[in-house]
Design goal:
globular, alpha/beta, single chain, 248 residues, 41% helix, 6-stranded parallel sheet
Length: 248
């Protein structure tokens, strides 16, 4: 998305390389079942519920209001599912009020800001991750939220908006589902599809984990940047086959 914007103002896009946000390959790998059980108990989530998770700042570009509207459609058909919407920000109270107005307050957990060391536990607890980002009327938009590779490293299928940097890592029908921004019906259908199909969730989640393990992790990205800087420092044009990641 940024490359296209730069190209529109005359920058040579052939000189632009794409480096995605990366995470530790074993993100959430050391989280215990005990820690997950404790968090579920704290949030009062029934043990037999499918958990849909969204994490981020409570700001407009995150699109969480559309997620809440979509989730209201989901629980009209599927009773044993809970949405966890974690994060702090200026819209926190507004999101709580919206959940109440939609009549889904008892099925949504909005714990507010989450400490950094708690984040891996939230991902380990979840079955599905959703990032419903939008382009705000002001032009503001997410790039590639770091929660996307975090969710993938935790082995989760990802439902995301087909917007900005999200499609760099979320591939529709491979490790998740892409929907148009602000598409409440599309979000609801994607959630229902994955909630009803545990086998597909596992397959998508495993694909997500492999992408991070094999490619989009700190080690690989650091190696790419190191090679790139050395080429530039020696006044050489970086080889086109030096790439930071490969997921296809």
């Amino acid at each position: 998305d940024l490359t296209e914007r730069l190209g529109a103002i005359g920058i040579d896009t052939k000189k632009i390389g794409l480096v995605p946000n990366a995470v530790e390959a074993d993100f959430s790998g050391d989280v215990t079942d005990e820690a997950v059980g404790k968090l579920k108990s704290t949030l009062d989530i029934p043990t037999d519920h499918t958990v849909v998770l969204a994490v981020g700042r409570m700001v407009y570009v995150k699109g969480f209001n559309y997620l809440l509207e979509a989730f209201a459609r989901v629980i009209g058909e599927i009773p044993d599912v809970t949405l966890v919407l974690a994060g702090g920000g200026m819209l926190l109270n507004e999101m709580k009020e919206l959940a109440g107005r939609l009549g889904i307050g008892d099925r949504v957990r909005i714990p507010g800001a989450v400490m950094r060391d708690e984040v891996p536990v939230y991902f380990k607890m979840a079955d599905i991750f959703v990032t419903p980002s939008i382009r705000h009327e002001s032009g503001a938009v997410d790039g590639l939220p770091v929660v996307v590779p975090e969710a993938m490293a935790a082995g989760l299928p990802v439902i995301g908006s087909d917007l900005s940097g999200i499609p760099v890592l979320v591939r529709d029908g491979s490790n998740g589902a892409l929907v148009k921004e602000r598409d409440v019906k599309g979000l609801a259908e994607a959630m229902k599809m994955l909630i009803r199909n545990p086998a597909k969730r596992r397959a998508y989640g495993e694909r997500s984990k492999q992408i991070i393990k094999n490619s989009v992790n700190y080690g690989n990205i650091a190696g790419y940047l190191s090679t790139l800087y050395r080429e530039i420092a020696q006044n050489r044009t970086p080889a086109e086959d030096i790439t930071p990641f490969e997921i296809d």
